Every structure is written in C-alpha cells, then in structure tokens.
Amino acid sequence: MILKSNYQKLIGLSFSFLFMLSLIGLSVGLGYANISLIDIIHSFIYFNTSNEHLIIQTVRVPRALIAASVGASLAVSGVFMQTLTKNPLASPGIFGVNAGAGFFIVVAVTIFQVGNLQAFAWISFLGAAVASLSVYAISSFGRDGLTPLKITLAGAAITAMFGSFTQGLLVLNEVALEQVLFWLAGSVQGRKLELLLSVLPYLIIGGLLALIISPKLNVLAMGEDVAKGLGLKLGRIKIVMAIVVILLAGSAVAIAGPIGFIGIVIPHVAKKFIGIDHRWLVPFSAVLGAILLLSADIGARFIIFPQEVPVGVMTAIIGTPFFIFIARRGFNGQ
Predict the structure, then answer these.
(1) For the chain: N or C, fewer Cβ within 10 A?
(2) Residue 236 placed within a domain
(3) Phi, psi of 326 (to 5 degrees)
C-alpha cells in the first residue's frame, strides 16, 4: 500500500518512528538479564551502582543507540547507491564498500597497531572511498559503459578481493585476529558509547547532506539526459552522493563491522509504502533501517539463548532470500 498524500506519509513516518523508539526500549530491557521498565527509568533518574543500572547505562543503552544509528546509516546508503547506479541490488555490502572499509581497519590494526577510535573512523572512510572508486572505475570500462550488471559483478569482485586480503592478514597475525574477530563478525554487542560518539559528527553531516539533496534525486531518477535538460549539475550531485555514502557506510562499518543486506532490503520496502519520492524515501528508509537492525539484534539474543548470534548473521538470514528475489526481478525486466 502506497501512502499518497504528504499527510499520510507524515503519519506513517511518525508511527514508524514511535515503533523504532519502542524497539529501543525493548532492546534496553531484554537480554540475558531481564530488566524491568521501572529499573530503566530509575537508572536515568536515580542512578546507583547496582548491577541493573550499570548494565543499562554501560551496555544496553549504547547497544540500542548503535543498532539504530548503524541501521539507519546503511539503509540511507543503500538508497543513494541504488539511485546513483540505477541498480536495484546496490548496497554498501554488495558493492565492496563494507569489505574495503573492513580491510583498511584490519591493516591498521595488524600492521600499524592502531587502536584510536577516531582513527578507526578515518581509516574506515578511506577504505570505503577506495572500494567505491574501484568498483565505479572497473564497471565503467568497455563499450557499454556503466551498466547494472557490470557494476554488480565489479562489486562482487572487489568484495572477494578485499575479503581475501583481510583473511590473509589475519592468518599471518593471530594476535590481531583476536583483536578484530568480534568486529569482523558484524555485531553491535559490546560496543561502547564512545565509539558511536567518535563518528557521530560524520553521521550527522552525512544525514543532513542526504536530506538536503534528496529533492534533486527525484530529478536524477528520471534519467541523466532529463536531469541535464532541467539544469541539474550531475557531476556535483554525484560527488555529494558519493560523500554521503562514504560518510554513512564508513561510519557504520567503523562502529559495528560489516553488516550486510540492510542497504538492499530497506529501500525496496520503503518504496512499497511511499513510492519513489526521495524527499520521503530518505527519512523513511532511515527509520525502517533502524527498525530492522534493532529487531535483528533483539532476535539474535534469543535464537540460541543464552548465547548470542552476531547480528550480521541475522540480517543475512533476512536479506538473502530478498536479494535473490530482487536479483531475479531486476535482471529479468520485472
């Protein structure tokens, strides 16, 4: 069902936002140690050093906020990549952005012994940028230029290459393997609030840029010839779009590691509700991305309780069938 009027879209966005907030509350309350709503409220008003309050403030709240931020960032990155490449399969995970950012962080840890959180963010951005430019350059070669199929194949190749390099470095350095294994699995478990705060400025800048240029994406979606005819500066817009993807996807990988499929699934789900108007698609995708990752993280705590499954495994379980469906529809002309 597509919400047609702006009023309906606003109501839908508001309900989605409230649902996201309720999931944040559930994420704080549910887990190995069940915590009541009263304890959650008291931890903010009358904080003491009890186990419950410490769990809430140092573990559960950062985990929930990180899950929401990462989910929103990956979803908006997927919207921008699909619009830029006109490929329904485009996402940071499929196009090597996550793998490139991950490889650069592993290099920093294994070879240069980098451990600074702020440095992780910049290194992640660099890896995301290198991977993005590599995929774009490789897929632009040939007579037909850039096509959805070529850019998908180039993304798969870059992802495999960086993944192989990453595994090779970790095999040679077992100490580094212990340091980054939790991060490579793609998880929000055990992440500190300081890690989110270290990349928060980049998330805010990327999000604001996404909202500011979202009306121009409606013009770009009509085709480059039409966009040029309407006076759109394509080169400038594409550069800003690339910056948005690098800031959001790079920050998400720096925080939680490579979590896949959110950037594929959420843009298509959002379009089913509000159509292709990017002025609404961007905020809807952000909220729905946060909802998906929060839900996956809550489910990951109980699927093999009392142990936890990395949330990247949960998103893969959800996203793989959807990826196959979109691939068949996208390359077979609907």
Answers:
(1) C
(2) yes
(3) -65, -40
pLDDT tens digit at each of 334 positions of the chain: 678 899 999 999 999 999 999 999 999 988 887 788 888 888 888 888 788 888 899 999 999 999 999 999 999 999 999 998 888 878 888 788 888 988 998 898 888 888 776 787 788 889 988 998 898 888 888 777 667 778 878 888 999 999 899 888 888 876 666 667 766 777 888 788 988 998 999 999 999 999 999 999 999 888 878 888 888 888 889 889 989 998 999 899 888 888 888 999 999 999 999 998 999 999 999 999 999 999 999 998 888 787 888 888 888 888 888 878 776 765 444 4
Classify residue 27: in a domain, yes or no: no
* DSSP-assigned states of every residue in 219-279: HHTT-HHHHHHTT--HHHHHHHHHHHHHHHHHHHHHHH----SHHHHHHHHHHHHHTT-HH
